[in-house]
Amino acid sequence: MYNVDITLIKMITKFYYIKRDKIVNKVNFKGKLFFDKFERVDAALTRQVMNEHDERKITVAHSLISDRDIVENIVFDYNGRDPERFWHRAQLMLREEGYINFTAYKSKTEGHLHLYVHKGHTTLHEGYQLAKLLSAKLQQKMPRQWKVFPDPNIPREFNILVLPYEVYKKERGSSWSKHM
């Protein structure tokens, strides 16, 4: 049973992507060739599909960009060696920038995190700018060991993330601000 609290993030569930064992598509984007192993499924992302993902029978990813070019989350895909330090630095930076709702999830690889910053209805262009800005501010505090999404330098269908496996830590509301 998929019991990860994904209600903390507003996920696009009208369609999803499933990982295949072979290359599904080749995309030429800005002079670079991208190989895609994820196939888009134009069906609703249901609990049954999520359960199969949780049981590791299939690998499912969700899109970060809606069909109407709306972004709900800015996501840091941390692939470093010290997730606790990354979480600490990121939460301080996000609080300083005025963000009060963000959640980190564990990914399939031990020590890697997906940090969802809940932004709400944001245009795609604004999402690109915001992701770049937040990444640059965090890079001032620690060496860059992450990717940030949405990313304008990769094809639109590559702005996807595998469904989370477990909540790492979350920050909700502004209860911490009364102590400052």
Taking all Cα atoms into account, the compactness measure Rg is: 16 Å
- What is the helix/strand order? EEEEHEEHEEHEEE
Low-confidence blocks of residues: 175-180
Biggest β-sheet: strands ordered side by side in the sheet: 9-6-8-7-11
> How far apart lie the N and C ends?
40 Å
The CATH homologous superfamily: HP0184-like
As for the CATH topology, it is DNA primase, PRIM domain
CATH architecture: Alpha-Beta Complex
**Shape by Cα distribution:** globular
Number of strands: 11
How many domains? 1
Number of helices: 3
Fold and architecture overview:
By secondary structure, the protein is of the alpha+beta class. It has one domain: HP0184-like (DNA primase, PRIM domain, Alpha-Beta Complex). It has 3 helices and 11 strands. It has a 5-stranded antiparallel β-sheet with strand order 9-6-8-7-11. The longest helix is centred in the last third of the chain and has 16 residues, at 124-139. The protein starts with 15 loop residues before the first strand and ends in a 9-residue tail after the last strand.
